[in-house]
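## Example pair
The file below holds two records. Each record gives the amino-acid sequence first, followed by its structure token line.
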Amino acid sequence: MNPMTMAVRAGLLRGLIELRQAFTNGMDLFSQFFWPIATLVALFFMRDNTFQGSGVSLGALGLPSVLGMLVAFTGMFGVAQGLALDREDGTLLRAKATPNGMVGYLIGKITSVSGLALTQAAIVLAVGMLLIGGVHLDTVGAWLTLAWVLLLGLLATLPLGAIIGSLFESPRSIGFISFPIMGLVAISGVFYPITGLPGWLQAVGQVFPIYWIGLGMRSALLPGDAVAVELGQSWRHLETFLVLGAWTVVGLLLAPIVLRRMARRESGSSVAARREKAMQRAY
């Protein structure tokens, strides 16, 4: 069998094993689903409020946006945190020492993080449709839109996660990156329509993928008249495709370069030094 094919198969198997472990470990389950559940509770209490007399429920507007946030946040933060953890415990060094090991490692990480993001999105959507209402998937077009937005959203955010993770040597320091990411969430129309924000914040929010993933989700799940609360009263499918596509291209071009440079710096001594620092913090 071709060595590259073997690496791909090994990576897929590794990703599935990691995904199974995430769903069978109580602490992992709690950490992965606490915030999605808490967000659903908040949207439940918003379901009877409408946006500026539009007749569109804030809960219904927020549900597709939260799905987009989960995809983006899990894609970026999940890969970044996993990469930092694997650098500290030597997993990345062992992958580097194996023929095509980095290829298998990255495929495994993409598989596990993508599976987790899609599972979270499916559960939140199913529960949200029952408890909050106002969203639907009753046409082929809606399903197709949901599918391409999910796929392109993951492609746009997973490489970003790899780039971010390669910049941090410790999983503890990765937590700091969550603050600017949550800042982007706040100005990306997730919990409140972006049209209610000042113009300069609208412009900043539209630079990054989170807003566009949320917009694509809303276009798939909300009734047609909900477009009235969007910028330009349009779902802007072409712009969504172009912006997410641009982030995908940039990420796929930069991520391999950054990861190769990071891998070249990995050594037994660097892993040992990081472990020693971690032990000192523990005591």
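Second record, same layout:
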Amino acid sequence: MTLGDTLKGMVGMDPTSHADPDMKAVLDTFKSLDPKPIEDCTVSEARAQPTLADAVEKLTSDPAFSSRPALELEAVSTEDIVIAGAVGGNAARVYTPQGDGPFPVILYFHGGGFVIADIDTYDATPRSIAAQSKAIVVSAHYRQAPEHRLPAAHDDAFAAWQWLVDNAASLGGDPAKLAVMGESAGGNLAINVSIRARDAGIQTPVHQALIYPLASNNIVSISYEENRNARPLNKPMMLWFIQNVINDKSELTSPLLDVVRANLAGLPPTAVVTAGIDPLRSDGEKLAEKLAAAGVRVEHRNYRGATHEFFGLAAAVNAAREAQAFVSLAQRQAFGAAPL
């Protein structure tokens, strides 16, 4: 049987049937919220749809869930601020761990296909990482498509990095220990910040954590075909996102999106997290390979029974706890801190 025959046989299959039991519980709860398929939505409708974070909140509030060991993390303090974007200001949230600074600082970008979601939707990840990595995390919003198409989000992300370089100390941070991190579209923004800082000759991150990043224009990869019908992200949804982001088809080959073809030499040590049930898994795998080939120190972990968006679901999903521990250890090592 050829690879083509195998991929054809996958069409119509439900890849989430292979999800870990706790991941499946989240997906079943998500289904009960009756989300409308994003690819069938207007942009305003898409932004109003329930999320996996909503599903976790519902699941963990069920008394039957109380027998599960709780996720115990030190509390972090938060402050909502406005930081400089490429055009005007953008919302940001600062998460500060307990203890005495100055702390390392991580600039974090949320996901959402450059179109949906915000710093509230993606509150769990920066909160957990601040506690586990003993770092200040600045979760930065950015202009979104289709109102602001490529390269607006990337310009805002780089402006956020420049702002952080200038203002880390005022947050209680150590200006010499700055890192970037992002999920999905945010992972794409994070690595593009590293690339642009390198090319501009300004301070570069000491580490980057790329969580199921969008890194390629290959929509016929193995993972795209395996997970074309997956939840919460599938192939039609990704096509919908990209159509809303680009100005014209020529931008599909832009290194901003097709990062695996960019110059990756000289980038900081990198942690890459992928999920088995995710169209973007092949993107992350290829990016890890390309980074290593360019001489970058890279660590890659794949979580086979997890789906896209699992990383912030540690309150309900064991794989998320494991992935967060992997990333936070890599970050602490990059900051020169002793393991907890």
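Notes on the second record: The chain has a mean pLDDT of 94. The longest strand covers residues 173-183.
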